[in-house]
Amino acid sequence: MTVNPAHSALWPAPHASGAVDATVHVPGSKSVTNRALVLAALASEPGWLRRPLRSRDTLLMAGALRAMGVAIEEGVGPDGTGEAWRVLPTGLHGPATVDVGNAGTVMRFLPPVAALADGPIRFDGDPRSYERPLHGVIDALRQLGARIDDDGRGALPLTVHGAGALDGGPVSIDASSSSQFVSALLLSGPRYNQGVEVRHTGATLPSLPHIRMTVDMLRAVGAQVDTPESGGEPNVWRVTPGALLGRDLTIEPDLSNAQPFLAAALVTGGKVMIPDWPERTTQPGDRLREIFTEMGGSCELTEYGLVFSGSGAVHGIDVDLGDVGELTPGVAAVAALADSPSTLRGVAHLRLHETDRLAALTKEINELGGDVTETADGLHIRPRRLHGGVFHTYEDHRMATAGAIIGLAVEGVQIENVATTAKTLPDFPELWTGMLGQ
Ligand SMILES: O=C(O)C1=C[C@@H](OP(=O)(O)O)[C@@H](O)[C@H](O)C1
Ligand SMILES: C=C(OP(=O)(O)O)C(=O)O
């Protein structure tokens, strides 16, 4: 968790002079866009992604698939409305080099795809990508018959020697450090000769909604998937081999990236409307309706979207965020401004996210005068009167948006490297000042 001096530019986080009242169009979901790209690349016919997220993580995914020979044409959709990408799955070829940046979805979802290419695929990325766990994917692919060269640490960099096909079959992994290990194997599973059966052997499994998202999206392109929820064994997912359909899919807004805007309504006692909030979704951000209601707001899901209102009061919360870990920085920021203490649990694995998020949140909130302590699996946050200062972000998009939430209520907060939000939300500064009418 070090500050990168190359990113020392400071952004004065806008202070809210009153209650916000705004409609915010949130761009597409990172998690849905990157799954849709992988599934379209593995399909047996062309497909469309409408309203895809255009951000660092999704452009890295598109670039990686292109490097393996998939054609992705960026343009407008079949009916001429809005941005749409056409994906032409023309075969997976090596040799190729893939830059994963610091995208968990790219570094975990693509080595199983590379095993199907007809040559070596080299994976490399940001310095932090070398520290993020990948052992579940590497060990599983080896069990399934793939040849991989790595340095033995269970992490990047590595080369997958694609042989044009993979046997597949049963595999056991410990996915307690990332649900993305399970998602990664399931996504490519239909294309393996015997499909895949993934058995999770660890004590805990984070981010279950993201595994449900993988299963739902696989089923939507014609894959047969058996899950613990559909009557299968606990902790076992089975994907039958078969061809995948090319679909015309509209990407939902990113509900986790809606979080700072909803938080703005909560901490200023205002109102924010997020158009196109889905009625039914596997996105973890949907849990915000419940979490931020418990913290003092109220919401209404209308046919146009979600209307979220603050009451003027912000309460602390005792919550297990294990299913929705990526919401932790935003919940911690609101908790630091609340009228009572909070305990955030179930998120030990966040120490291996974009940065060590538990250490980073503790340090940065405390440097503004806060009182946060780390626990074995989360944070205790006792609200204090905060003061201005620099909020470091450690190249973590969600640290930057967390700092912006605090800045609404605390004058003089400066966010270091707000540009890091480009990982999933490149327009964040403009959307934020637009929400505030500035
Ligand atoms: O599959 C996905 O799209 C994601 C799964 C989660 O990862 P972990 O299970 O590693 O926390 C989540 O935190 C990440 O932002 C996106
Ligand atoms: C953990 C996150 O990202 P990644 O997909 O890189 O794991 C996140 O977006 O909060």
Index terms:
amino-acid biosynthesis, 4-stranded mixed sheet, about 450 residues, binds shikimate-3-phosphate, UDP-n-acetylglucosamine1-carboxyvinyl-transferase, Chain, alpha/beta, EPSP_synthase_CS, 23 strands, 3-phosphoshikimate 1-carboxyvinyltransferase activity, transferase, RNA3'P_cycl/enolpyr_Trfase_a/b
The second-level CATH architecture of the largest domain is Alpha-beta prism
Class based on secondary structure composition and strand pairing: alpha/beta
Shape: globular
Number of helices: 12
The CATH class designation of the largest domain is Alpha Beta
> Rg from C-alpha positions?
21 Å
% residues in beta strands: 15-25%
CATH T-level topology of the largest domain: UDP-n-acetylglucosamine1-carboxyvinyl-transferase, Chain
**What number of structural domains do the residues give?**
2
Strand sequence of the main sheet, in spatial order? 2-15-17-16
Quaternary status: single chain
First and last CA, distance? 33 Å
**Mean pLDDT, rounded to whole units?**
96
Q: Largest sheet at a glance?
A: 4 strands, mixed
Q: Which superfamily, in CATH terms, is the homologous superfamily of the largest domain?
A: Enolpyruvate transferase domain
Question: What can you tell me about this protein's structure?
Answer:
The chain has 438 residues and is of the alpha/beta class. The protein has two domains: 5-27 and 254-435, Enolpyruvate transferase domain (UDP-n-acetylglucosamine1-carboxyvinyl-transferase, Chain); 30-250, UDP-n-acetylglucosamine1-carboxyvinyl-transferase, Chain, CATH 3.65.10.10. It contains twelve helices and 23 strands. It has helices spanning 30-42, 56-67, 104-114, 135-143, 180-188, 208-220, 259-268, 288-294, 328-335, 357-367, 397-409, 428-435, and strands at residues 10-12, 21-23, 47-50, 71-76, 83-88, 96-99, 120-124, 147-150, 158-161, 169-173, 196-200, 225-226, 236-239, 248-250, 271-275, 298-301, 305-309, 318-320, 342-345, 371-374, 379-382, 389-391, 413-416. The strands form six sheets. The chain has a four-stranded mixed beta sheet, covered by helices on one side. Helix 1 runs parallel beside helix 2 (56-67), helix 1 (30-42) packs parallel to helix 3 and helix 3 (104-114) runs parallel beside helix 5. The radius of gyration is 21 Å and the shape is globular.
